[in-house]
Design brief:
The chain is mostly helical. It is built from six helices and no strands.
Length: 165
Amino acid sequence: MKTEIFDIYPFYYISFWQTTFFKVSIVVILFLILVSTFLFFYLKNKRKKITAWQWATVELEKLLNSIDSFESKKDFKLFYFDLTLVIKKYFKKRFNWRTRDKTDEELMIFLKEKKFDDELLISLQKMFNGAVWIKFANEDVLKTESKKDLGLVLRMVEKTIPKNS
């Protein structure tokens, strides 16, 4: 009588990356990455683009809301720094002028060279001079002056909105 010999283990081993389950899961993961990337860029580009003056108005409103919480002259120094930064970014967004690297005095000279509106130049000069108040004024005067300066900048933004928009 002849006995047959049977193997206990399979003759060969299939690696996990060669299994059907692994291949299908890789395809599914790649598909999900592709779909999520597409959705990300689609939704990012779909976002409503706001105009330069709308952006500036929102930023100035944020600054206005923060004035009441200021407690020291340091807070007002930061306020004027942020205010001038908003002005410079606005000029970049609105007129595509490179103003962010300019000091306040250089910005005024630059605006005069660009034949910027004289009334607006005077308002901006008053606002830039408002930073001098920080050194000498008390907190109540600083709040009223900073609100007034913020109003000057807001009026400047409103006056530079194109008529056809």
